[in-house]
Write a structure and sequence with these properties.
The protein is of the alpha/beta class. The chain contains 14 helices and 13 strands. The protein folds into four domains: 5-122, GTPase HflX, N-terminal domain (Rossmann fold, 3-Layer(aba) Sandwich); 126-186, no CATH class; 203-365, P-loop containing nucleotide triphosphate hydrolases (Rossmann fold, 3-Layer(aba) Sandwich); 371-422, no CATH class. Strand 3, helix 3 and strand 4 form a beta-alpha-beta unit. Helix 4 (111-122) runs antiparallel to helix 5 and helix 5 runs antiparallel to helix 6 (172-201). The N and C termini lie far apart (86 Å). Mean pLDDT is 81; it is low at 1-9, 18-27 and 148-156.
Length: 425
């Protein structure tokens, strides 16, 4: 039967902690923290959580991940609360997923498929949609066997936001053809982005990318610095589509700020691969602002996860500033104990606290279009030059003498080259 609409409402979550389980992104989240994050993801997908079960095992059961007794308990619990969907906080093999669905008589998803569904819900631009579609197709391809009738239609609940073409799942040849087509579209996106980037890089303007764990406050900070109106939400993965905006630093230099998709523990490899077109903004950025939720009890683990994804993107050695966000939620005593340093700034993006400190730190790290100090004599009749200096430079001293203005100014190198005629002899 096709999935019912109630899948968007009634879901049970299952966390399995296996002592022998390892993965490329392993970080020390404990089981309770991991389950709490799964619940946030589930709520972000529009489900109502009606129950949760946890099992600790020395090793996973090959056929069903969880043990036989726990499987019977799960089946009874799901039946009791009329759950339409069971979500595992663990990646399931295709055979495990099929075996679990046969045993519990309802739909089963793993964490990866849940994240893919959230991405599908939040992708707004064509670029974001085709990147999500590629990740979905590559995830579904090994999971076709035995899923003919139930996967032949698109549904309305979690895990059923398919890539947009019926019967894809029953025909490998069609899927491979569609994957090739989507990759061609992504190549077009990359080519257009490369052209845009080439035009930007022809001017001495630095690009700064916001990176961080999902829901760390990147979009809120982006809006506070740029007034861009990007959607900022407490839900995970509210931002998928990259946005670039210009901001002015205290030195009056302009830089481009890029908002990017949030990272997460065990971010599916298919998503990292599919979103490389978007994440190229991170790779090409001059400086990274690593946004972290200062109030999170798992802040250290989240920071470690971000660093692992940055390593995968070959950005481990890139200059960065650690931005500890949400300090307005700390107690006065905790805030008093905070201390900025050359590479760490504490802010509240929501309240606008200490954003000037952040801009000053960015200014110190940026080497593009360096600032020069100049002594100028500008005739008062040169109103356009004087207005440009007011708007794009910092005037240190100014004195009016015989129809001219003697000035000592700090200006970006790109502006200094246009002022050589007014340099004071």
């Amino acid at each position: 039967m096709p999935p019912s609409a109630r899948q968007a409402r009634n879901a049970a979550t299952v966390d399995v902690t296996a002592g022998t389980h390892t993965d490329d992104y392993a970080v020390p989240f404990d089981a309770d923290e991991s389950l709490a994050e799964l619940k946030e993801l589930t709520l972000g997908a529009g489900a109502e959580i009606v129950g949760e079960i946890m099992q600790r095992r020395s090793h996973p059961e090959p056929a069903t991940l969880i043990g036989k007794g726990k499987l019977e308990e799960l089946k009874a619990a799901a039946s009791m609360v009329n759950a339409d969907l069971i979500i595992f906080d663990h990646e399931l093999s295709p055979s495990q997923q099929r075996n679990l669905e046969k045993a519990v008589h309802c739909r089963v998803l793993d964490r990866t498929q849940l994240i893919l569904d959230i991405f599908a819900r939040h992708a707004r631009t064509r670029e974001g949609q085709i990147q999500v579609e590629l990740a979905q197709l590559e995830y579904l391809l090994p999971r076709l066997a035995g899923r003919g009738v139930e996967m032949s239609q698109l549904g309305g609940g979690i895990g059923t936001r398919g890539p947009g073409e019926t019967q894809l799942e029953t025909d490998r040849r069609k899927i491979h053809r569609r994957i090739r087509h989507v990759k061609e579209q992504l190549d077009d996106v990359k080519r257009i982005r490369a052209q845009q980037r080439q035009r930007r890089e022809s001017a001495p303007v630095a690009t700064i990318a916001l990176v961080g764990y999902t829901n760390a406050g990147k979009s809120t900070l982006f809006n506070s610095l740029t007034n861009a109106g990007v959607v900022a939400s407490a839900r995970m993965f509210a931002t998928l589509d990259p946005t670039l905006r210009a901001i002015t630093l205290p030195s009056k230099r302009q830089v481009l700020l890029s908002d990017t998709v949030g990272f997460i523990r065990n971010l599916p490899h298919t998503l990292v691969s599919a979103f490389r077109a978007t994440l190229e903004e991170v790779q090409r950025a001059t400086l990274l602002l690593h946004i972290t939720d200062a109030t999170s009890p798992t802040a250290a683990e989240q920071m470690a996860q971000v660093e692992k994804v940055l390593t995968e993107l070959e950005c481990a050695g890139k200059k960065r500033i650690l931005v500890m966000n949400k300090i307005d939620l700390l107690t006065p005593e905790q805030r008093a104990a905070l201390a900025d340093d050359a590479d760490t700034v504490h802010v509240s993006a929501a309240r606008g606290l200490h954003l000037n400190h952040l801009l000053e730190a960015v200014d110190r790290h940026i080497t593009e279009d360096p600032v020069r100090t100049m002594r100028l004599r500008v005739p008062q009749s040169e109103g356009k030059v004087l207005a440009t200096l007011e708007g794009k430079g910092n005037i240190l001293r100014r004195r009016y003498i015989a129809g001219a203005v003697d000035m000592e100014v700090e200006v970006p190198e790109s502006l200094a080259r246009r002022l050589t005629a007014f340099v004071k002899k």
